[in-house]
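Worked example (supplementary).
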Amino acid sequence: MNILGIETSCDETAAAIVVDGTTVLANVVNSQIDLHTKYGGVIPEIAARSHLEVINPVIDQALAQAKLTWDDIDAIAVTYAPGLVGSLLIGSLAARTLAIIKNKPLIPVHHILSHFYANFLTATPPTFPCLALTVSGGHSQLVLFKNHAQFQLLGQTLDDAVGEAFDKVAKIIGLPYPGGPAIEQAAKLGDSERFKFTKPRLDNPYDFSFSGLKTAVLRQAQQLIGKDHNFPSFEIAPLLSKQDQLDLAASFQQTAAEILVQAITKAQAEYQPASIALAGGVSANQFLCEKINQACNLSLIHPPIEFCTDNAAMVASAAYFLNKPTDPYQLQISPNLSIEDL
Ligand code: KG4
Ligand code: ZN
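After joint prediction of all chains, the assembly is encoded as:
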C-alpha cells in the first residue's frame, strides 16, 4: 500500500511516500530554519506563508522522487493535530483537496503518535509492549504502546518541552536556533560537571518539567557575568566567556538527559516493556541516546537522524498502521489535541 504523507505542523513542509508503513520511496522536507533563525524561534505567520508557497512543489517532488503517479497512490495521510494553527491548516487543506479531486482515502494522523512511527522506518522496528519517549520542540511524553491502537500516556511535560528548553537555553547563552544541535556540539567541548542544576521532584514520576532547569541556567549565566536576576536574558550572551558558554551547554544537556533517563528507567522497571523507543527532534541527540542505552538493559530503538525531526514519512507510516480514514469534507484541524483525547 503506497501512502502519500503530508506534514506541516510547525516549520517543515514535508511530503513522503511510504510502502506498507516501512519502506520509504520518497522523503522531501523543506525546512524553514533560515526564515526563522534571525528571530531566534518560529514565527507562526511566516511559517504558514512559507507552507503555502512550497506545499504543491514539495508534493510534486515526492511523486517524482518515488517515480510514481497519482494512480499509484492508495491513500493520503496528513497531520491534523497538534501544532501551529496556520501551519496545520495549509497541510490539511492540501490533503483534503487532493483526496477529493484524486478520489483517494484520507487518513488524519496525530503528530506525536507519528513521531513514534519513525521507528518503523528502521531495520529493527519496535516490538510490543513498547515504552516510547517522544521528545520534541513542542512535547515531552512517555507513552506505553501495548499495540498499534492501544497506548497509555504515562506522563508528559507540565511546562516547557525538552526541545523548547534546548532552544531557550541556546538563546540565553548565545547559540543559534535550533538550539538542540547547537547545544549538543558545544557540549562536546564543555565541562558537564562544572554546574550542578537541581532536578524537579514531581508527584507523577513520569511527568517532566524543564522550565525550572532553563531558569537555573539563566540565573547561573547572570551570576557568571556579575549581574542580578533583573538583567535581561537577551543581553547575557555577548558578556559570557566562550568557556562559560560551553560549560553551561554541557551541564544543561547533562541534567536534561538525567531527567529523561530517570523517568525511562523507572518506567522500564514498572512496566517491563519488550522494547524502548525514542522519537522526536531531541532523539537526534547522540549524548541522550548513549545515556539511555547505558541505563537500560534493553537496546534503544531510535529513528535514523532524518526521521527524528519533523518529516512526512513518519506520518505515512502511522497512517498505515493505525489506518483510520475520514471524510475529507469533515476533517478539522485540532491544534491542542493530546493523545489522551484520542
Ligand atoms: O520534532 P521536531 O522537529 O519538531 C517538533 O515537533 O517540535 O523537534 C524540534 C526540536 C527543536 O527544539 C530542536 O532544538 C530539537 O528538536 N533538536 C535537538 C537536536 N536536534 C533537534 N535537541 C537536542 N539535540 C539535538 N541534536
Ligand atoms: Zn514534531
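Two points are worth noting when inspecting this output. The pocket of KG4 (ligand 1) is lined by residues 10, 136-138, 163-164, 166-167, 178-181, 184, 280-282, 284-285, 309-310 (CB under 6 Å). The CA atoms of residues 269 and 296 lie 9 Å apart.
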